[in-house]
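Researcher: Here's a chain I'd like modeled. Treat it as a single chain, no partners, no ligands.
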Amino acid sequence: MMLAGRKILLIIGGGIAAYKALDLIRRLRERGARVVPVLTEAGAQFVTPLSVAALAGEAVHGALFDLTAEAEMGHIQLSRSADLIVVAPATADLLAKMAHGLAGDLASTLLLATDTQVLLAPAMNVRMWDHPATRRNLAQLRSDGILTVGPDEGEMACGEFGPGRMAEPLAIVAAITAALGQGPLTGRHVLVTSGPTFEPIDPVRYIANRSSGAQGAALARALAGLGARVTFVTGPAQVPSPAGVQVVAVETAAEMLAAVKAALPADAAVFAAAVADWRVANAADHKLKKDGSGRAPVLEFAPNPDILASVAGMGAGRPRLVVGFAAETDDVTAHAIAKRRAKGCDWIVANDVSAATGIMGGDENEVTVITESGAESWPRMTKLAVARALAARIAVALG
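Model: Modeled as a single isolated chain. Structure tokens:
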């Protein structure tokens, strides 16, 4: 009953994902929350007021010009009496209305009239999600302090595949719990590094690797969903940074180390970044040119700082839990066990990133978690599922 006594105003937008809102209501009520539903006109095309009311145990609100309610300024009372306003599904239309302050129906009026925290669970076609207008609207809403959860990647009702699926009800419940300050990691600070590093050769060229940053971003998102205050130090990743975390963007390993040190102290530190082992010691300050000789320039390499070992080896100020990642292409478990000992960290999360696995840059991962007590292999799953499982384990370890 972790949400006992909490009042959630749930706005159900118009999209096929509205059917998930019914399960969300059930999950919230199982945890003791009171759910007051607002069903948009478009939402009522996908789920009925009767089914929503039956699950919520509350009257369904839908009309802005309800004479009885509006005689008492009902839309103002609704918008400010809840502990949290949740929009699920949050359609592209609702995002646009919110971003531009429009108030043409009950849902948009509630969202404009409120001073209560708002959590959005976006859901739309992948092309709508990727459209520049939607990206602008979402950026505006996030800068306004609006929280988001999802969307997930997967197959759409329209048959297309990609980002845009509404987050699953339990993920939304976790985000609600975190927003209300009641997650198992509430009050904890977790540092996460992610993405590749770019080591310059000259002002135009650099050395990098194939890391997309997807696993680190998913982990930061999962930890924030459990209530943690997350500092997310990321190299130039191919995936967007998650909402609800403090993002520190870096490029080189040296910049990442400086950002990590600045973010400490932390209760836990998870080093999911694929940091370059070497940098170019003789990087040029101008673009290198062909000289007509046919000879390539000679690059001299120097070792980069070992960020994981530096933090794991700290005395005072060391995080209680230090977790490293080991991307290997052969003898994965043996190399990971040796790495954990050499670095002095508490856990190593190892995976096989050889080309045949499709893991580096892909949507799935298959990991082995190495701890002092041994190695535990997990089945192949989405990177988000790996992140949620690892975040749950971190929450248990921090008590």
